[in-house]
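User: You have something folded?
Assistant:
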Amino acid sequence: MEVWRGSVASWECDAMGHLNVRFYVARSMEGLAGLAAEMGMPQAFAADARATLMVRDQHIRFLREARPNAALHMTGGMVEIGESEARLLLVLRHASGEIAASFQTVVAHVTARDGRAFPWPARVLARAQALKVEIPPEAAARSLGLGPVESRASLVRAQELGLKRTALGAVRAEDCDVFGRMRTEMMMARLSDGVAHITASQRAGAQEHGAQDHGARLGGAAVEYRLLHLDWPRAGDRVELRSGMSGGDARIRRLTHWLLDPQTGRPWGVAEAIAVAFDLQTRKLITLSEDALAAANTQVIAGLTL
């Protein structure tokens, strides 16, 4: 079922020359509104909605770059549905049909104003079978688990582990949706803006030790993400991002992020990412040399989890 169609604007692209991850998530939210309509909830994201869909968990695979002026379209369907939650699949494709990105999104059926979960209405359950889809192999989790998580994230624990502060700021009114909650893509925006603080030294090490690349200009990209939304900040609330490397090998780095309330120390959300270094000229992944890998591994924080 097609739920979105559009293209990539140059201002949505980052220093790597491709669509920034926050705009992938923004498109997934537009696609979610389209899928909600197909589920029988056409006004789920309207200001006067009584019920809406709240994102709990997102698994994202970034499979093929989307560069300026790329024509894209998105299809959606339902993987499974429970009493008040559902796992939905959104697939963003290039005009060629190749998958640009996939989104396994767990949503809860909640009251629009206070976010209280309650059972799906009969009309949604009646549509569920018609919207049923299977997860294609490309969209399946690869390097990240999708099992239940009981997060230990807190500001105190971040300080104990020595997690670097990678972003700090406040939620603005324009960052919020019609219900007053921070928009889903704004969590990804904070992660994207902060990641340079922990990857700069990795890229420097790769440049120094990975001489096989003949002086190639190095870039970085996320290839897989899992984001868990634990609470929803509102305009005026402050956010602090603490991040660290939690593993990796010669081709990938595993990054863990905790988005926290600096006032109370509680988590707004947590995320795990698989990132790679790549050659900005050939657009191919780079394998770290033994020396570069050893240097990167000195930054891994033992025991760091969601």
